[in-house]
């Protein structure tokens, strides 16, 4: 009879006290912890503690909500869900309460569009990635990379779902932190250019214009703003930071759309238009926070019956031919409007433009 061979048993959950497993799990990512919870009740007991996830956020450098916001929320019967915060931050590569929610979003459109995080949508057109930016004397203040534009209007838009990024809905509805969008921009030293920067908050079920933040009428300050800046030739303008503060938005806002458009004003071939980079999005909790119990109806600054088309067309300057968007009832009338499209039978190089950007008519 052969002697039996025993294999030393590894430690089970009950062999180690909670404090040991606590430290082990503090060094694991969210996916690992989520799977480990299925093993035994001891693991579930440890990870059910909201304080465990608060400590895990701190350990991994995830910014916590400010203490005065935590205190006010607790008084009102709400506590921040640190597990939710950690899960979104760890799996989505985002720090929602940090200095810049867009910190990890690449500047290069080819890389950014493949970034693919579920909490944001990225779209760019007619923008060229430059590293370093061309047309400047190198200085310590100059950014290392930027998007450059040409005589065809270039644009870039980023739609952020704050809830999916880790901000709980009640935080946006009850505490309503200010939302700040920033971006650096500058023209080349040798070419006149124009630059637009815009930010707008939206409800989750509101339509998403494919390109730009646009209002049908005057912009509603509670929803955001649009800034336009013109620079003359030989401006030698240093890099400037544009900032938009959205502080008085209403109930139910979940998305923030940040968009930038730019072009040169002299219609030169090449990337002589405005450049922009270092886009930031941040939540700011004022020292004197107020609790909002009223589910007020947020102001509507556009017709919610507007529809987004399946096929997008652009004119010769990169402008969306549905720039202000049209309702279904107006669709028939819109088909009669003229537009210039880059289709297979249209060669943009054969078109001449006057100083206002309009096509020159052929002389008979």
TrEMBL record:
SUPFAM superfamilies: F-box domain, Galactose-binding domain-like. Residues 328-364 are annotated as: Disordered. Residues 91-285 form the FBA domain. It holds the Pfam family FBA. One of its GO terms (molecular function) is ubiquitin protein ligase activity. It comes from the Eukaryota. InterPro entries: F-box-assoc_dom (IPR007397), F-box-like_dom_sf (IPR036047), F-box_only (IPR039752), Galactose-bd-like_sf (IPR008979). PROSITE patterns: FBA (PS51114). GO terms for cellular component: cytoplasm; SCF ubiquitin ligase complex. GO terms for biological process: ERAD pathway; glycoprotein catabolic process; SCF-dependent proteasomal ubiquitin-dependent protein catabolic process. PANTHER family: F-BOX DOMAIN-CONTAINING PROTEIN, F-BOX ONLY PROTEIN 6-LIKE PROTEIN. This is FBA domain-containing protein. It comes from Mesorhabditis spiculigera.
């Amino acid at each position: 009879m052969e002697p039996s061979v025993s294999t030393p048993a590894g430690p089970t959950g009950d062999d180690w006290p909670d404090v040991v497993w606590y430290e082990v799990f503090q060094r694991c990512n969210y996916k690992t912890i989520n799977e480990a919870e299925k093993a035994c009740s001891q693991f579930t007991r440890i990870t059910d503690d909201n304080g465990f996830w608060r400590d895990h956020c701190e350990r991994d450098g995830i910014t916590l909500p400010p203490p005065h916001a935590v205190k006010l929320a607790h008084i009102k019967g709400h506590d921040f869900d640190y597990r939710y915060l950690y899960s979104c931050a760890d799996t989505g590569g985002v720090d929602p309460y940090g200095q810049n929610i867009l910190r990890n979003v690449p500047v290069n459109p080819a890389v950014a569009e493949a970034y693919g995080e579920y909490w944001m949508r990225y779209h760019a057109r007619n923008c060229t990635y430059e590293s370093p930016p061309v047309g400047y004397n190198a200085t310590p203040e100059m950014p290392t990379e930027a998007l450059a534009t040409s005589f065809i209007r270039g644009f870039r838009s980023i739609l952020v779902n704050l809830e999916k990024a880790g901000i709980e809905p009640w935080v946006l509805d009850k505490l309503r932190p200010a939302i700040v969008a920033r971006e650096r921009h500058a023209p080349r030293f040798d070419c006149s250019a124009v630059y637009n920067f815009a930010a707008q908050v939206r409800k989750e079920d509101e339509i998403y214009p494919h390109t730009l933040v646009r209002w049908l009428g005057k912009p509603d300050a509670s929803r955001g703003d649009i800034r336009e800046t013109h620079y003359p030739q030989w401006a030698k303008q240093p890099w400037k930071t544009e900032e938009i503060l959205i502080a008085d938005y209403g109930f139910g806002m979940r998305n923030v759309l940040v968009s930038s458009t730019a072009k040169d004003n002299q219609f030169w071939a090449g990337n002589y238009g405005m450049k922009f980079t270092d886009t930031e999005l941040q939540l700011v909790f004022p020292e004197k926070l107020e609790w909002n119990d009223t589910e007020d109806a947020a102001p509507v600054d556009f017709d919610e019956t507007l529809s987004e088309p399946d096929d997008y067309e652009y004119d010769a300057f990169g402008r969306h031919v549905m720039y202000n968007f049209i309702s279904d009832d107006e669709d028939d009338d819109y088909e009669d409007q003229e537009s210039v499209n880059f289709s297979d039978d249209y060669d943009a190089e054969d078109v001449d433009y006057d100083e206002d950007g309009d096509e020159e008519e052929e002389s008979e």
